[in-house]
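Training component of the fellowship. As part of building independent skills, the fellow (R.M.) carried out the full modelling exercise for a liganded target. The chosen ligand was magnesium ion. The inputs are recorded below so that the supervisory panel can assess the work.
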Amino acid sequence: MGYGSSLIMRGIGKSFAGVHALKEVDFEVRSGEIHALLGANGAGKSTLMKILSGAYTSDSGSIEIDGKTIQVRTPGDAKASGIHCVYQEVDTALVPHLTVTENIMLDRISSPGSRHFLGWKAFHQEAEAVLRRLDSPIPVRKRVSELTLAEKQLVLVARLLTEQAKFVIFDEPTAPLSLEEAERLFRVMRQLRDDGIGCIFITHRLPEVFEMCDRITVMRDGERVLTEDKQETDMDGVIQAMLGRSFEQEFPKAEAEIGSIVLEVKGLTASRMTASRTVQDVSFSVKKGEIVAIVGLVGAGKTELSRLLFGADAVDSGEVRVNGTRMNLSQPATAINGGIALVPEERRSQGILVSESVQRNLSLPILKLLSRFGFLSGSGEQGNASSVISRLGIKTPSPAQKTMYLSGGNQQKVAIGKWLNAGVDVFLFDEPTKGVDIGAKSDIFRIIGELAQQGRGIVYLTCEFSEALGIADRILVMYDGRIVASFGRGETTQEQLLYYASGGGEGTA
Ligand code: ADP
Ligand code: MG
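Fellow's submitted model of the complex:
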């Protein structure tokens, strides 16, 4: 391998059914460097890296290593050129019921005839040696299914080392890791760099970038907008590049009368939740008619927080009050009866029943109200459905249409609409505009504004800072499971929000 090797992507273009995901992107990574690849959600980072690792093919452009053009049409092609990838979803790359050794040696063990000249003992020893080189003592005879996610990532790194990797892509590997686990992964990345491997590191946490990386490339809207040595730029410069001109997004905010406190959250804490994420000592309150946005990057803990408030996951400590009454935070039914509704991020799996009709979805939370003596009143259900459909402008050929055939934006309106007549005092919206078109987006903002005008308290969880700036009366910033900053309407900017959401306030508070 040797030092001084360089991999260059030139003029890479890629479209998906009309979405121009990459426009003439040039990108270079050198052996022996850690190169940060940054950009807001949707900037094109993953697409560029999927092209490099052979998961997608580009529409245009070329890839070369040390001046020689290489063809990368499949992941096998990429690996043959020494290009490997550590995705966040490590499980897809590992075989859970096989041992650590078997997973590290997977290629060689599965190649015919290998067992004739190398015994198991030698395999185990080699696996141990690689893990030792990474300073990661994982028992090699353990099954991979028994490992933590962080350990699985290390097994993947060990495997690519035995396969003579020259360039390694890390696509947001640290998002689900604890700080300690992330630190260990950083040591491993530095080790790879010192061994002359070129590392590409995608992350949303800017402090990591300035701690770890040698060079920084920023993408925005499918284009490369900045490549600099770390010393040549700073956090503000990178944030400016990620956001571009601060665009004035016109979401006219409906004026609502702010009343008494409707939701009060005190010291909410839950550890050891999915993917080792936590919610730490979160306190805030929401008044009637008030829209409180909680912003944070992917993995900050927003979805976890919304699930705790809704009673969908268990809390360790803390309390939630609605109109002064303390909630028993054990199950969603209690939250609903107590007046809290959640419009979840994963609406297709959690917010609506896609194979049921629009009408039935809209009546689910109020089946009791619509029933007499235990029988559902058909006309009551129809009446409720048609009033909600027209109020929210849900585009459906009929109330009987199966919800799965609606567009994403209209499905979202159904997920919201089912709560409209359910006597709810507090609405939790988790990324409500994700994957919806611009028309539905403005409808959703209008609906939320109306709910506030009716005196409902709104919690709006989003990673879109511009939306929070447009819609919220107050903005709380979440980072690593905590609220790290709070601003009134008009008191902050996208730059400042991104600064806090990326951990920029750590240690200064
Ligand atoms: P990033 O990783 O920077 O968040 P992505 O590369 O995932 O960005 O996405 C870039 C753009 O390409 C986005 O608009 C995204 O919606 C689109 N995109 C990515 N993958 C696909 C796909 N498989 N099908 C359709 N659109 C896609
Ligand atoms: Mg991505």
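The panel noted the following from the submitted structure. The chain has three domains: 6-247, 259-339+426-509, 349-422. The mean pLDDT is 87.
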